[in-house]
């Protein structure tokens, strides 16, 4: 035993003299240990070399196991420390901004219509986005970038190759991943000061009721009439303002429906879903990639205005964008007396 310790000390000392790295010196000692263990196991008990080294094979093996356990424990501890040290900027307290947040939102804060109070409202706001597709992608990215502190997104679809022509929140590497988780990755990478809750399921009546109640504002970027009518019904019932956009091929439309504050609801404007086949989906009719980018960014813009009170929102007005002709027009919307959803203002 003494001989081995002596050899180890000599190796360590020589290594130090030759300026060999600590790691390499530990490597030499490990090699010495392996050699000693090999002699202990391979040689007969009476062999003089084995006697000179001392100890028993079991003893040497036990020493090796003990050292391995200590090293594994240290490595585990080191990994934990590194993870703890990684800057994980947890969202700061509601209503207070860290210096990095003030810097990030500086271009908002200098805007007279938003300023510090507006940015604070954005940080405290809870916005739910229906669908992480063409409209939801830019809407979520801009809401997150703008510092809307609490985002939710619900969608039951997965990212597919044919989505990527317009659904810019997703990436080629995330094909096959549920869209809401792909969106959560993108938002986390974009802005560590906001949180996004992903709901990987189809919106039904019960889920809508529970989720809408937890949010201040609903953005509908869904792609089917069944969901649109459901979203409008529940939003109207709970008195939540609803920014809804839709598009097909080269044309998009957007409005803010808020019957609790006197505007029409979606069903006032579109009392009945078109007959199947009359309003083909994007998959059937096609849609220009940047168009949902324009309309989804407008949804985020209207959301920021609604949350901060800046400017004139699209309450009671519908903006229609004809991308092919490069024309925009606004039409006034009226409540429809006897509307099955909001009563049309007669109630
Ligand atoms: Zn209505």
TrEMBL record:
Matching NCBIfam families: PRK05690.1
Gene3D superfamilies: NAD(P)-binding Rossmann-like Domain
One Gene Ontology term, aspect cellular component: cytosol
Protein name: Molybdopterin-synthase adenylyltransferase
Annotated function: Catalyzes the adenylation by ATP of the carboxyl group of the C-terminal glycine of sulfur carrier protein MoaD.
Catalytic reaction equation(s): [molybdopterin-synthase sulfur-carrier protein]-C-terminal Gly-Gly + ATP + H(+) = [molybdopterin-synthase sulfur-carrier protein]-C-terminal Gly-Gly-AMP + diphosphate
Keywords: ATP-binding, Membrane, Nucleotide-binding, Nucleotidyltransferase, Transferase, Transmembrane, Transmembrane helix
Single GO MF annotation: molybdopterin-synthase adenylyltransferase activity
UniProt-listed Enzyme Commission number(s): 2.7.7.80
CDD domains to which the protein is assigned, alphabetical: ThiF_MoeB_HesA_family
Similarity comment text for this entry: Belongs to the HesA/MoeB/ThiF family.
Highest rank taxon of the organism: Bacteria
Keyword Secreted: no
InterPro entries linked: ThiF/MoeB/HesA (IPR045886), ThiF_NAD_FAD-bd (IPR000594), Ubiquitin-activating_enz (IPR035985)
Transmembrane spans: 59-77, 127-145
Record note on quaternary structure: Homodimer. Forms a stable heterotetrameric complex of 2 MoeB and 2 MoaD during adenylation of MoaD.
THIF-type NAD/FAD binding fold domain ranges (all copies): 105-340
Originating organism: Rhodovulum steppense
């Amino acid at each position: 035993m003494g001989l081995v310790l002596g050899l180890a000390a000599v190796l360590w000392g020589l290594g130090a003299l030759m300026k060999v790295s600590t790691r390499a010196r530990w490597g030499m000692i490990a090699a010495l240990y392996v050699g000693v263990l090999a002699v202990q196991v391979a040689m007969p008990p009476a062999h003089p070399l084995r006697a000179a080294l001392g100890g028993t094979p079991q003893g040497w093996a036990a020493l090796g196991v003990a050292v391995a356990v200590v090293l594994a424990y240290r490595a585990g501890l080191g990994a934990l420390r590194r993870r703890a040290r990684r800057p994980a900027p947890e969202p700061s307290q509601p209503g207070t901004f860290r210096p990095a947040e003030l810097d990030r939102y500086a271009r908002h804060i200098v805007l007279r219509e938003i300023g510090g109070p507006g940015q604070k409202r954005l940080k405290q706001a809870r916005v739910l986005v229906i669908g992480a597709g063409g409209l939801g992608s830019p809407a979520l990215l801009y809401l997150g970038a703008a510092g809307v502190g609490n985002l939710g997104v619900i969608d039951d679809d997965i990212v597919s190759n044919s989505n990527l022509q317009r659904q810019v929140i997703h990436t080629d590497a995330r094909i096959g991943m549920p869209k809401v988780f792909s969106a959560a990755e993108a938002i986390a990478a974009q802005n560590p000061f906001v949180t996004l809750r992903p709901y990987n399921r189809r919106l039904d009546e019960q889920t809508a009721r529970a989720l809408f109640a937890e949010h201040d504002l609903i953005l509908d970027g869904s792609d089917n009439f069944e969901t649109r009518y459901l979203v409008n019904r529940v939003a109207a019932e709970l008195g939540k303002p609803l920014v809804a956009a839709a598009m097909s091929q080269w044309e998009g439309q957007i409005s803010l429906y808020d019957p609790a504050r006197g505007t029409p609801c979606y069903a006032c404007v579109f009392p009945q879903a078109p007959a199947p086949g009359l309003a083909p989906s994007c998959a059937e009719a096609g849609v220009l990639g940047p168009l949902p980018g324009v309309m989804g960014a407008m949804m985020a813009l209207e959301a920021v205005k609604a949350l901060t009170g800046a400017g004139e929102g699209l309450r009671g007005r519908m903006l229609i964008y004809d991308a092919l002709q490069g024309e925009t027009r606004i039409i006034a919307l009226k409540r429809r007396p006897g509307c099955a959803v909001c009563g049309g203002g007669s109630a």
